[in-house]
Amino acid sequence: MARDLVDRIGRLVATTSADVDALERTAAQGQGQGQSPAEDGGETSKDIDSRVRSRLADIQSLLDDAQDAVLDVRPSEKELLTHLLSKHRSGFRLLQQRYRSSVLEARAAIEARAQAERAALADAESLVRASNDVTAGLRQAVQMMSAEVERSTETVKLLDESTRTLQKTSHEYSLMGDLLNVSSVIIKDLNGRDWKERAMLAAGLAVFLSTVAYVIGRRVRIPGYRWLTGQCVDDPSWFCF
């Protein structure tokens, strides 16, 4: 799942980069948002801008999901996926910066176009009203772009915080791994000592029981004990038991 998310982020970053390129070309040509479609049936800059904002939001969401998913993958894949995720995050930040630049350039082009339209429509009242309507729409577009720039700035801050959190989590996992290795060595050593102590206790118990049996045999007359222990060999009596 984590690998699929990382691959999907990479594809989104690539397609979004192409759209940002289109916005940059549009801004460089002095075309504002809301420009009429090209004669060859191309999209307007407004359509591209809307799609870029949507894809940036999707990338942000996928980065958050991938960050959580990477924590659950195998250690052999974690380093590669973390590297790819960091690379995509850097690409995402670059896309946001390029997008903000294109928005600012488009806003400048919009303002220049609005001024030109107001100057051209100054001779007639009807044209002035139309110019005012166009200007109001452009102002609304500029406000939307400004709000998007502010949101993008906050998103960059959140990404930086997420990166620091991920690095801290990775360090903590490394410390936990070292602690588990040390604990494993200690447990093995304790198991070895336990078996040695059991063997010593068993040997001591055997010596103790042998001693008790010997003392009892020497102090208490047990029928058949002398015969079993071979003491009757040196006994002149015909009855030894």
What does the secondary structure layout of this molecule look like, with pairings?
Elements: H1 2-28, H2 45-70, H3 75-120, H4 125-219, H5 225-229
Helix pairs in contact: 1-2, 1-3, 2-3, 2-4, 3-4
Structure report:
The chain starts with a helix and ends in a 12-residue tail after the last helix. Mean pLDDT is about 80; it is low at about 30-40. It is mostly helical. It has five helices and no strands. The longest helix is centred in the C-terminal third of the chain and has 95 residues, at about 125-220. The protein has helices spanning about 1-30, 45-70, 75-120, 125-220, 225-230.
Quick structural overview:
With 241 residues, the chain is an all-alpha fold. Helices cover 83% and strands 0% of the residues.
Distance between the termini: 86 Å
Radius of gyration: 43 Å
**Residue windows where pLDDT falls under 50 for at least 5 positions:** 31-41
Please tally the β strands and state the result: 0
- SS-derived structural category: mainly alpha
- How many helical elements? 5
Q: Helicity, in percent?
A: over 70%
* Mean pLDDT value: 78
User: Helix and strand string, N-terminal first?
Assistant: HHHHH
